[in-house]
Design goal:
One of its GO terms (molecular function) is methyltransferase activity. Pfam families: Methyltransf_16. Keywords: Methyltransferase, S-adenosyl-L-methionine, Transferase. The structure is a single chain. The protein is an alpha/beta fold. It has one domain: Rossmann fold. It has seven helices and eleven strands. The protein has helices at about 25-40, 75-90, 110-115, 130-140, 160-165, 185-195, 210-225; strands at about 5, 40-45, 50-55, 60-65, 100-105, 120-125, 150-155, 175, 200-210, 225-235, 240-245. The strands form two sheets. Strands 7-6-5-8-9-11-10 form a seven-stranded mixed beta sheet, sandwiched between helices. Strand 2 and strand 3 (about 50-55) form a beta hairpin. The longest helix is centred in the N-terminal third of the chain and has 14 residues, at about 25-40. About 35% of the residues are buried. The chain binds S-adenosylmethionine. S-adenosylmethionine binds next to helix 2. S-adenosylmethionine binds near residues 104, 105, 129, 155 and 179.
Length: about 250
């Protein structure tokens, strides 16, 4: 089966908002890294009955089954950016034996990579996403990961005290890729970040900028968290952020 990088597929040219970009050194570096990130994804060129893509991280081929009927049913570029970051910064952001939760996990790629890096992972999303999420996570981590990942429902802002009581939340990292866009649950998303985050928790969040709404969310987010931009990919309109709770005591 012939495989090609999605970066070279015409259908992915929409990823590059490269209007009149000058060939500056920064642009060149951005394109180099983005090419490398996108080269981690391969899709079969032959038509098959199930839709899947494969990704290459942590020395593993990760096969992701997708569906075309909702936002969480495909792998979004922000997820690749976050996976690439986790892989290439594994020393600084060591996942081994860490408690990690992913919100809006979708097809599960980020959770799978965190799990292959050695974390105790809880992958969460809306109830209708959990079947496919569980399938992808199980097939890609079974006999490969140090700790068996969990899949749990987490609808932002819903039953948090019951399903994720603050007293038992003990997450070292919260991971999130492309969870901010034109949906009506942005305030609930913020509440969820706040609920899951302890003083010692680090949020790693890849964010795709599309509309003004995203900038407003960042402003709201900064009221509760200290936000640091750790990477930027202008050709994808994606930024990678690290955040911790505001006014936390040093640990
Ligand atoms: C754009 S997709 C990103 C999926 C995945 N993180 C990725 O980057 O490939 C947004 C994800 O957020 C989830 N989501 C949207 N609204 C949600 C809500 N109210 N509660 C929980 N998850 C939600 C969707 O189901 C979807 O998986």
């Amino acid at each position: 089966m012939k495989k090609t990088s999605i970066y070279h597929q015409p259908s992915f040219h929409y990823l590059l908002d490269s209007e009149a970009q000058e060939e500056t050194r920064e642009d060149y570096d951005d394109k180099q890294v983005v090419t490398e990130i996108m080269a981690r994804c391969f899709i079969p060129t032959s038509i098959t009955t199930t839709s899947w893509e494969s990704f290459h991280f942590i020395g593993h081929e990760i096969r992701i089954t997708e569906a075309m009927d909702c936002y969480g049913a495909v792998v979004w570029p922000s997820a690749l950016v976050l996976c690439y970051f986790l892989e290439t910064n594994a020393k600084q952001y060591n996942m081994v034996d860490k408690n990690v939760i992913e919100i809006g996990a979708g097809t599960g790629l980020v959770s799978i990579v965190a799990s292959l890096l050695g974390a105790h992972v809880t992958a969460t999303d809306l109830p209708e996403l959990l079947g496919n999420l569980q399938y992808n996570i199980f097939r890609n981590t079974k006999m490969k990961s140090k700790h068996l990942p969990q899949v749990k429902e987490l609808s932002w802002g819903v039953a948090l005290d019951t399903n994720f009581p603050r007293s038992s939340n003990n997450f070292d990292y919260i991971l999130a890729a492309d969870v901010v866009y034109a949906h009506p649950f942005l305030e609930e998303l913020l509440i969820t970040f706040d609920h899951l985050c302890k003083e010692t928790t680090v949020i790693l969040w890849a964010m795709k900028f599309r509309l003004e709404k995203e900038n407003k969310f960042i402003d709201r987010f900064k009221e509760l968290f200290d936000l640091e931009e750790i990477s930027s990919f202008p050709s994808l309109n994606i930024k990678l952020y690290k955040a911790v709770k505001k006014n936390r005591r040093s640990v």
